[in-house]
Amino acid sequence: MAKPAKSLYVCQACGATAARWAGKCGACGEWNTLVEETDAGPPPGSGITRQSKGRIIKLETLIGSAEEAPRFSTGIMELDRVTGGGVVPGSAILIGGEPGIGKSTLLLQVAAHLARRGGRSIYFSGEEAIAQVRLRAGRLGLADAQVGLASETNLANILATLGDDRPPDLVIIDSIQTLWADTLDAAPGTVSQVRAAALALIRYAKMAGAALLLVGHVTKDGQIAGPKVIEHMVDTVLYFEGDRGLPYRILRAVKNRFGPSDEIGVFEMVTGGLKEVANPSELFLGDRDNQSPGAAVFAGIEGTRPLLVEIQALVAPSGLGTPRRAVVGWDSNRLAMLLAVLDARCGVSFAGHDVYLNVAGGLKIAEPAADLAAAAALLSAVTGVSLPRDAVYFGEVSLSGAVRAAAMMTARLKEASKLGFLQAFLPESGDVDSGGLKLSLSRIAHLKSLAAAAAPCN
Fold this sequence. Notes:
Domain RecA family profile: 68-218
Distance between the termini: 86 Å
Keywords: ATP-binding, DNA damage, DNA repair, DNA-binding, Hydrolase, Metal-binding, Nucleotide-binding, Stress response, Zinc, Zinc-finger
GO molecular function: ATP binding; ATP-dependent DNA damage sensor activity; damaged DNA binding; hydrolase activity; zinc ion binding
Binding site for ATP: 97-104
Family: Belongs to the RecA family. RadA subfamily.
CATH architecture of the largest domain: 3-Layer(aba) Sandwich
């Protein structure tokens, strides 16, 4: 007689299990995330529970030649850049982002491009009807592409469809949270269902040599919903960033087994879909006001690409007991540290002022080299003195006020020179190949030097 299925309580935030329900997960500390699920175990006769004797595996050494993984182009150069030069057959790619930011649009463009080149693309939509996908394809001018389309959420039906004909070159699942396996007694989107669906699809992609693109929902914090193990299972994790109110979109790689894990691609949302931006620096600097104080151009590096972006600061008298500090696109803790350094080392106090800092264009910066540009913008805002319109800034500021060297300084300067900038404020330390650059280099050893050169303090 078969044993009754055992009930477990699974945390929908971290995937931890508990024998009984509790208001708070003991593993991650989240509240009201434990959901009852049935652990049915493997089906009878599947052989999973039988222990095999195993075989001896031949061990290899580290010496030997490794061939470069074959790739195929997506037809979108920015996406090829983010994935490391194209999509590898048999790889699994997870794409996350806010609703309506353009995930489905981008994947439909990729599927249509591959189909037009003679490849076989299959698009499974779990959230939209076939008519809705066809309407989007018509708006994008992709209706003539021979893309296999289905609206299905049953995992068994999807696997049966994939195995019915020759293996496809590309499989798109939109989205992984809508799939459900009939062998599990749990609702779609729960930890067990998402994990089981991802495992089955990735196993098929590896065996058939088909590239798998999965769309993932995100939580209110911007992280991909479901257990973190999904991100470990796939080969590449991409995040769409940007404000839906702005036309710019940033596709960032946070994990990539076949290329750099810190590369970005820049897109612009237009009527015909997502249009790649060949020169992002011109895009982010196109609408800046050169006369207003509190604006500094930061010469940054995103992956292997130099990128110029404007950092804007506003300092206003505060009527509150505790002045406000608001940051968009930068780390709020880093702003607090920089304000303390300016106060202690440069003698510029922001105690009675509200401070607002913004990275223009919706870009998120995590590079420490942005410290010098942020400090210049803050000094300009508090003194009311505009910075030179043809100057760029980069360098990391330490707690002592010293400016430390940044990586790839020559590449930053070349990008600034190409866009017509004539002056650069950079760390005193670090080697720079200034040959052929039409830039006046101002080496900054300490933050006091920046205060005197860029925006003199009162």
